[in-house]
Write a structure and sequence with these properties.
By secondary structure, the chain is an alpha/beta fold. It is built from four helices and five strands; from the N terminus they run βαβαβββαα. The protein has helices spanning about 20-35, 70-80, 120-125, 155-160; strands at about 5-15, 50-60, 85-90, 95-100, 110. The protein has a five-stranded mixed beta sheet with strand order 2-1-3-5-4, with helices on both faces. The two termini are about 20 Å apart. The structure holds zinc ion. Zinc ion binds next to helix 3.
Length: about 160
């Protein structure tokens, strides 16, 4: 039997966002884990993961922690912190970005306002080593600009990768 892979994420969010509760953020992450579990077609695979909010804190945006974050240098300032997931108010041109493919521990940014239903699990996918190549628009790891807003499928290789971290 496959054991569930558990990701306990330390989360910070920008002070430009409305106050967020652990329950609110946990709701987003749980629905993302459920997207990874869902099977919608015969060539769709599922991965048994759980994503938890280990802790949640607000940070003060500014030069050291930019919001908006507009380029890689800005992203790196957030990746350089100790927490895993950063929610920002404004990330022009992107809904999310990961520290690398792969990068460990996982560090990724999600725009709280413009995120798709699957943006957190998509960016976590990059952190565990998944790229975009070879994917179709229905799949979670498809490139962001063309991915369906309700994307919810995984390739078999993707499923294996979520367990590697
Ligand atoms: Zn991507």
């Amino acid at each position: 039997m496959q054991k569930k892979k558990v990701y306990n994420l330390s989360v910070e969010y920008s002070d430009l966002l409305p106050a967020l509760t652990i329950a609110q953020v946990q709701g987003v992450l749980t629905s993302n884990a459920e997207l990874a579990l869902r099977k919608d077609s015969t060539n769709d695979w599922r991965t048994c993961i759980e994503i938890n909010v280990a802790n949640l804190a607000v940070f003060t945006s500014g030069a050291a922690r930019p919001d908006p974050a507009v380029n890689q240098a800005d992203y790196e300032l957030h990746f350089g912190q100790t927490h895993n997931l950063t929610f920002l108010n404004d990330t022009p041109g992107i809904r999310g970005v990961a520290c690398g493919i792969p990068c460990s521990p996982p560090r990724f940014i999600v725009n709280w306002n413009t995120r798709r239903p699957d943006t957190p699990v998509h960016e976590l996918g990059h952190c565990v080593g998944l790229g975009h190549a070879g994917h179709t628009v229905q799949q979670i790891m498809c490139e962001g600009a063309t991915r369906n807003s309700n994307s919810n499928e995984l390739k078999k290789d993707d499923v294996d990768n979520y367990d590697d971290l």
